[in-house]
């Protein structure tokens, strides 16, 4: 069974994943922001399966905001939407997405 995601679905996944990296970096989690961003980028671009194909590119034209709170306001709902979308359309890929982002 082939799974097809439309452009909006792909944008949701990219916003969630790349936004999570930005959020962790901005929050200063696990050390320097640069190190967090580098490790997160490597994780996303190393993903496999459908998720890997979608996450090879960062989202274009997304404005995350100027504060960590504004960033979280976009990223957290996108993470929820991404998991709902994948659980509905590609349950095996939902686990892949979760493992990739965390």
Q: Brief description of this entry?
A:
The chain is mainly α and 102 residues long. The chain has helices at residues 7-27, 33-45, 49-55, 68-89, 91-101. The longest helix has 22 residues, at 68-89.
Radius of gyration: 13 Å
Order of helices and strands: HHHHH
Could you give the distance between the termini?
Answer: 27 Å
Instruction: Estimate nothing, just give the exact number of structural domains.
Output: 1
Number of helices: 5
Poorly predicted ranges (pLDDT <50, ≥5 residues)? none
Shape: globular
Strand content: under 5%
Number of strands: 0
Main structural class: mainly alpha
Commentary on this structure:
With 102 residues, the protein is mainly α. It has one domain (7-101). It is 73% helix and 0% strand. The protein contains five helices and no strands. It has helices at 7-27, 33-45, 49-55, 68-89, 91-101. Helix 1 runs antiparallel to helix 2, helix 1 packs across helix 4 (68-89) and helix 4 (68-89) packs antiparallel against helix 5. The radius of gyration is 13 Å and the shape is globular. It starts with 6 loop residues before the first helix and ends with a helix.
Descriptive terms for the model:
single chain; 102 residues
Topology:
Layout: H1 7-27, H2 33-45, H3 49-55, H4 68-89, H5 91-101
């Amino acid at each position: 069974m082939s799974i097809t995601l439309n452009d909006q679905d792909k944008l949701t996944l990219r916003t969630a994943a790349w936004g999570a990296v930005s959020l962790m970096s901005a929050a200063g989690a696990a050390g320097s922001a640069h190190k967090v961003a580098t490790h997160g980028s490597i994780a996303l671009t190393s993903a496999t399966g459908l998720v890997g194909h979608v996450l090879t590119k960062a989202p274009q034209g997304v404005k995350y905001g100027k504060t960590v709170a504004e960033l979280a306001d976009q990223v957290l709902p996108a993470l929820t939407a991404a998991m709902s979308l994948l659980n509905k359309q590609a349950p095996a890929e939902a686990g892949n997405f979760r493992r990739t982002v965390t």
